[in-house]
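Problem 12. The chain below contains 244 residues. Write out its predicted structure in C-alpha cell notation.
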Amino acid sequence: MKNTFLLFLCLAVYGFVQAQDISYGLKGGLNLSSVDGLSSPKVGFHVGGFVNFDLKSKFSIQPELLFSIDNGVYEYTGNFEGIVPYSYKQDVNTSSLNFPILINYSFTDKFALEFGPQLAYLFKANSKNSVTFPFVSGSLSSDVDMSNNSQTISSTIDGARDAIVVQHDYELNKLNFSLNIGTSYKLTEALFVQARLNLGLTNFTENANFLAGRDVVDNEIGDPTRIGETLKLSSFQISLGYKF
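Solution.
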C-alpha cells in the first residue's frame, strides 16, 4: 500500500505540472465510522481543504488534507466465571490528520467518480470500557489513552470507589493506510457534495487482545471470541465542499 500511495503522490506532482487549470477549496462533513469488528458505528466529522488539478481530459487529480474524528462502539454480554452475568461496552474514539490523493473521472459536467489511497497520521486514540453486573452492586470502568500507553481502571463495589493507573503498550500505529472510492456532484460551479467510502487497510493497534477487553480485568472480562483480533478504521463520509 505504501508503494501505491507513492505512485499516486507522483501522479499528484504530474498533475501539478500538467494541469491546465488549478483550483482549491474547503470541505467538511460527517463520518459514519466503525472499527473492525465493532458492532455499532458512530457519527464523527471531518474538515479540511483540497487542491484540484484539472487535466482537461475528463480526469483530474485531487489531493486533500483533512482533520477527522472517527469512532466505534462494541457491546458484549457474558458470564463472569460462568456464573455472574455482565454487560461489557467498549467505546473507541480516534483523531487523525488524513491525506487522501484521488483520481477523479467526470462522466458529465456535474457527476464524477473518485478513487485513490489515503495516508492518515493518528495522533490520538482513546477507549472507554465499562462492565456492569445487573444483579451485583458493582461496576468496572477503564479509560484507555492508547496515545500515551496508559490506562485508568476504576471500580465501584458496594458504593466504595477505587482507581488505579497502569501502563500498557498498545503498539499504536501512527501511520495508517486506507482506500477511498466515491462520487461527487456539482450543485453549482462552486458548490458540490461528495459521498465516499473509506476502507481501512492497516491496523491502528497491534494489541491483539484489545477488542477482547482483556485490559479491563486480566483474562476475565470481555469477549473471548475477539481474542487475537486487531483493528482497522473504516468510514462512510458525506461532504459539502466549496471551490474558490
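Discussion. Residues 131 and 166 are 18 Å apart (CA to CA). Students who got a different answer should revisit the alignment rule from Section 12.3.
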